[in-house]
Design brief:
Helices cover 51% and strands 11% of the residues. By secondary structure, the protein is an alpha/beta fold. Strands 2-3-1-4-5 form a 5-stranded parallel sheet, sandwiched between helices. The longest helix has 19 residues, at 136-154. The chain is globular, with a radius of gyration of 16 Å.
Length: 181
């Protein structure tokens, strides 16, 4: 894999972040870290920040405090991190919050689309994802169906990730970003 993903100078990043949304297994964290490195800007992952600040895994938060408490933390931290420049990866369920969806309106939001088969393959039986415990395939199908409209609502660009490796996805984002500016 080539280190230089896009020919020519780096596109200038505006003051607002590039925000990545999508279902579990879409590549938000992997692509976000690569994109931020390519742009030379900070990368922030809302789920990772929650774990760091609370000192518990996402699974522990779900078990100890419940999904509603987790979603409140997610909404609060998303609002805190949105004004910061760089690349921001939101948790798969962040778009369930009407407040978060409204906050995303003035941002560049990229929906990393993933199909059910690829999502299942990438996520596997990852026990760090509390909503996917049990019937992973059935739960992912339900999440993909329920959230697709919300991802579509908030996104300014959608990229299919099923047949692309992370470096190719970064290249697509960079090329679209260069055209926009």
């Amino acid at each position: 894999m080539s280190e230089e993903l896009v020919e020519g100078p780096r596109p200038k990043l505006v003051d607002r972040p590039i925000v990545l949304v999508g279902a579990p297994g879409s590549g938000k964290s992997t692509v976000g870290a690569l994109l931020a490195a390519r742009l030379g800007v900070p990368f922030r992952d809302v789920d990772a920040v929650i774990v760091e600040r609370i000192g518990k895994s996402i699974t522990e938060i779900f078990i100890d405090d419940g999904e509603a408490a987790f979603r409140a933390l997610e909404e609060q931290l998303t609002a805190e991190l949105l004004p910061l420049p760089g690349v921001l990866s939101l948790g798969g369920g962040a778009v369930l919050s009407a407040t978060t969806r409204a906050a995303l309106r003035d941002h560049r939001v990229i929906w990393l689309r993933v199909g059910l088969a690829q999502s299942v393959k990438r996520v596997g039986l990852d026990t760090a994802r509390p909503l996917l415990l049990g019937n992973v395939r059935g739960t992912l199908r339900k999440l993909l169906d329920e959230r697709a409209g919300l991802y579509r609502e908030v996104s300014t660009q959608a990229i299919d990730t099923d047949n692309a490796i992370p470096a190719e996805i970064v290249k697509m984002i960079m090329n679209a970003h260069a055209v926009q500016h």
